[in-house]
Amino acid sequence: MVRRLGRLALAGLGVLVGLPVLYLMVALAGALPLSPGRPAAGPATVTIFVVSNGAHVDILVPMRHPVMDWGDWLLPEHYPEGNPFMAAYAGFGWGDRDFYLNTPRWTDLTPVAAARALFASRGSLVHVTLWYGTPLPGGGVRSLRLDPAAYGLLVEGLKAGFETGDAGRPRLIPGYRYGPADAFYEGRGRYSLILTCNEWAARRLRAAGVAIGWWTPLPFGLLWSL
């Protein structure tokens, strides 16, 4: 009986160790681009950025461009200490609603919060951050240039992540923010081991024709893929 329990314990330990290793291996393989992306439909005149904080990535796009003026989408009253009209870029990130709102710092992370986000997400949100300067490529920052048609596809993908109200505008989650120039909005979709915040960003880029890995749930895989 003791030996049997010991074997079961070892088997359980093997599963606990093996599954994360398998997930990491598949994520590394998923970072390999399988296609060159969509051929450019014209001059690549739109500069965007993919920025990682080590846990997840944001997609930064120009605040104003003939394809999309985000000042018409992000209301100034949503940023009481910031001003969308003065920002150079808007950064978009997506993720589990409860995790984002209740884990503003890594010291707030608990195993229960992580497990709930991965296996029992109760909804999502979009986190928008205003950028008043231009990020410098390198480290956790990648710059990309898109033609206007590709940028239009990216814009549609970013907007599709928002849950909108009757007026067609994104629905603000009041009372929550990380700093003076950010806001949270109700999102569409559910976070999971498969559809992480990083994979959500990657899907927006793939839809715009960017050559990127076929599955990038982790931030370093996404940056490496780019």
Structure class: alpha+beta
User: How many strands?
Assistant: 8
Q: Percent of residues in beta strands?
A: 15-25%
Q: Biggest β-sheet: count, sense, barrel?
A: 6 strands, antiparallel
Strands of the largest sheet, in order across it? 7-1-2-5-6-8
- Average pLDDT score: 83
Write structural notes for this entry.
The chain has 226 residues and is of the alpha+beta class. 33% of the residues lie in helices and 19% in strands. It contains six helices and eight strands. It has a six-stranded antiparallel β-sheet with strand order 7-1-2-5-6-8. The chain has a two-stranded antiparallel sheet with strand order 3-4. The longest helix has 29 residues. It is globular and about 45 Å long. The chain starts with a helix and ends with a helix.
Summarize the structure.
The chain is of the alpha+beta class and 226 residues long. The protein contains 6 helices and 8 strands. It has helices spanning 2-30, 97-102, 111-119, 148-160, 197-207, 219-225; strands spanning 46-52, 57-62, 64-65, 68-69, 89-96, 124-131, 141-146, 182-186.
